[in-house]
Structures are given as structure tokens and as C-alpha cells.
Design a protein that fits this description.
Two copies of one chain form a homodimer. Chain A is an alpha/beta fold. Chain A is built from eight helices and 13 strands. In chain A, helix 8 links the parallel strand 10 and strand 11. Chains A, B: Keywords: DNA-binding, Transcription, Transcription regulation. Chains A, B: InterPro entries: PRTase-like (IPR029057), PRTase_dom (IPR000836), Pur/Pyrimidine_PRTase (IPR050118), PuR_N (IPR015265), PurR_Bsub (IPR010078), WH-like_DNA-bd_sf (IPR036388), WH_DNA-bd_sf (IPR036390).
Chain lengths: ~280, ~280
Amino acid sequence: MKKLKRSGRLVDMTYFLLQNPNQLISLTYFAERYQSAKSSISEDLTIVKSIFESEKMGYLTTVPGASGGVRYEPAVPLEEGERLVQSLCERLEDASRLLPGGYLYLMDILGQPRFMNEIGRLFAGIYRSREVDGVMTVATKGIPLAYAIGNHLDVPVSIVRKDHRVTEGSVVSINYASGSSNRIQTMSIGRRSISEGANMLIVDDFMKGGGTAQGMAELLKEVKANLVGIAVLVEAATDERVIDDYISLVRLEEVNEKTKQIKAVPGNYSKHLKF
Amino acid sequence: MKKLKRSGRLVDMTYFLLQNPNQLISLTYFAERYQSAKSSISEDLTIVKSIFESEKMGYLTTVPGASGGVRYEPAVPLEEGERLVQSLCERLEDASRLLPGGYLYLMDILGQPRFMNEIGRLFAGIYRSREVDGVMTVATKGIPLAYAIGNHLDVPVSIVRKDHRVTEGSVVSINYASGSSNRIQTMSIGRRSISEGANMLIVDDFMKGGGTAQGMAELLKEVKANLVGIAVLVEAATDERVIDDYISLVRLEEVNEKTKQIKAVPGNYSKHLKF
């Protein structure tokens, strides 16, 4: 890379940090990249850090010492998070989402990569201190959110399937009781896709009884991985929930097919959101 | 936002442009955001543009005039694209991927959000001139790449399913012949998920005969949308392909179960890649 002035370094450094979240970048790396003295790089990083912090783009942590450097951790500030959740609630209350059986059409929301990306950044900020090694979700609708979170945390995604497809190789399967229908179902995961001892974050787009999330938690036990959290986009109000340690963005208080009323309120996430 | 010096503006501007790809941001917006004169903003953008271009982070297009502004379009430069494809080829040639029936295990690659993100940026650069309105893929394995491309192009993703799930609302279905098994199968898409007349990019993680991609193309006709391209991550060598207008990153020349040989070479993408 050719030698750059400070203004050029600041643009490139910002780009570089955003492209490499959750990775420790050494001062030496930047010094060589820009053919500049470490003291200049330190000053650059002070400027970058002050803007990242005042504009609340996430955390920029400096690790001192010879093996030290700088790490960018994506997050969404409280205020922006509240705005995001509020817009989600409003969109969910649109009566045209109602499908037979009290289900809600969500694909227009889940189908927006940029919006999912923002939601993923919000969750990444919430779970940043839990040392997540991987994200796990169930096909199909959980995948967009799982990838958005995995992208910001820079960890792999494991996909649980309710069907069994040949291209997964050897699989681990369990039976679980689906909360909504109370039927016994099967879910499987490719044995290669989760390492023993990994700290896994479960992601669910829509949780009612919690049977699916509980099933995923049992799969984790089966492959000797650790459950460090359950991230839920939308939870339905219910009295019969089999799990309670989860973080939700939105809670559906009411879905009334007769009166076409949907009431969505913020979930329990705000207790876990700080900047 | 509080008034910033040039150094601060450059950091924030870079962040802002990266977070809002493919959107025209007016000079007025930046002038108000930073409480600065438009002439200063113009100078800032000249600096940002020169770094984006010399470091090949993508295109920064300036639109002149009163309604003008600046637009960032993500792309991957030729050289970096070649490196990305080369690393993909090497990973694919690992014999431990071989599954019964000549299939390859791909979930470790598809399961890496950051890697998928880079591949998505490569495809977004390739298709930037085709005015893509939306991305379409088939569940499950196509989803990660489809979202990565959709994210960089800032367009929604529509997911085709081979099962029929109740939460999609009204669906459009077609029958198609799967190339590999020659069986007649069904695929469906939620009627709400694609607009009439939309320019759609089809995404497929693995293409053999092309039956799945052709099925998706027929679904597009069914909902009166336009096919503007077919992006394929890995194509298998075959003499019986039903489609030919696609862009692939990697081509499997040989998958030999007996000798455990896999040979992967770059696909036809490079003809379409320029910077």
C-alpha cells in the first residue's frame, strides 16, 4: 500500500476496522500498512476512537503492550436500538400480516438484508461479553438473523434442520415437542458443524412455547457444546413457555384473528442493552 | 450531531457510506449532518473517493446537480476476487468433503458469515450494472449467499421453498425436473414476496444440471418478474445443463469418489469482473 497522509489513513483505517470486526489488529500491522511511525498510528486511532464513541458506532477497544492493538466491536446504542425496535413493533401491528391460525407473515421483514443487519448488530452488542464461538439456528426463517449476528461477532453459523438432507454428512438428531402443536418432531444438525466445548448462541425468529429453542438447547448438550444465550426476534405471549432465559426484541401481546388486532411491544432486551 | 473537524468528518463519512451502500446521499445531507459548508464536504468527498478508488473498496460515484450527491457501490477488485476464488478452490479440493453419492460437504464454507459477505460483495460488483431489484434463492443453503449479495446491493431477498409452510400466506407453485435425480419436484414462493416487473437475480449455491435455477426462472415468469442473472457459487461439470446464462465463481472439474480426487477451478466469473 502506498504511503498515505493522515486524512487518507483515517478513511482506510475506518474501512479496515469495519471490515474486520472483533479482530485484534496490531499497531505494527497498521504501521506497516501505512509505512508510518507507530506514534502517528496511535494518534490516528485516538481520532477514530473518539468519533466511534461519540457517534456510538460500537466499541473500539485498545489493548496495550507489545502484543496489543485495537479491536472494533459492533453495537447499536440504546437510543438507536429503541428506534429500531419501535419501528419493528409498528410494522408488526399491520393487520394485513394476519394469516390463518394466528400466524403472522414476517418474510417482508426477514427478507430485508439491511434491516436484518441492523438487528444483528443490536444483538451482537448485547451478547458481546458472552464470548460467543458460534451461532445456531433452525432453517429456514432463523437463518437471516443468525447470519447477521454471526457476521458482526465474526463467528460461524450452524443450521439445524427439521428435514434430513444428504449433503450434511453425519448428523446428530433429537426428538422434541413442538410447543404450538404439541407434536413430537425431529431436528438434526451436521456433526461437523459444531465443535465440542464451543459457546453457542441460539437464534430464533419467532418463539411461542419455546419448544424449538429447547430442542436446539438439547442438541447442544448432545454435541457437548455450551449454551450461552437465546436471541429471539419476536416472542408471542403465552403462559406455557418451556424456557425462560432468552432475550427478545419484540413481544406480541395480542394477536386477535377476529378483531384483526395485533399488539406488539418491546421485548425484554432493554434490560441487557447498555453502551 | 456536533460540529466536527475534517479528520472526524472523514471517519464518520466513511462509516456512513459503508452502512448505506447503493443509496444516493445528498451533499446537503452531509452539510447539515456536520454543520459544514458544501464546499468543505466536497473536499472531504474528494479525499474519501481517492482512497476508496486507490484501495479498490468499491465505486464512489458523484452525481452532480441540485438533486445530486454521492453513492457508494460495494465491489471487489479483480486481484482480490481472484485470491478469494483461489482460496475457495483450495478449500473445495479437500478430500474429507466427499460425501456418499459424489456430493460435497459445504456447510463449513457456507457457514462463515464473513466469508459469505466477501463473496456477496464480489457478486454485487459483478451485477451492479443490471439494476437488480431483488435476489431470489432456494432454501436452505442458498440463503447465506443471497443475503450477502442482497445486503451489498441493498435489495430484498425472496426465498423459494421446496416444502410448503403455512406462514408464507398465499403461494405460487410450479413443478420442475431436478437435474440430478430427474424426479418431478415442487417449489413455491410467497406471492407477496416478489413485485410484478421486478428485476430479479437468482442465486444458487451449487448447480449441477441447473434444474433448480430453471425452476426459479419459471417461478419468476409466473409472478411476472424479470430474470436479470443467475449467480452460482459452485458449478459441477456436466454435459446436460438446461441453462447457460449464469455466472459461477468455481467449477468442479472432477469429483471422483473412488480416487478421492476433487479438482476445482475458477468459474466463468472473471469475464464479467472489471474494476
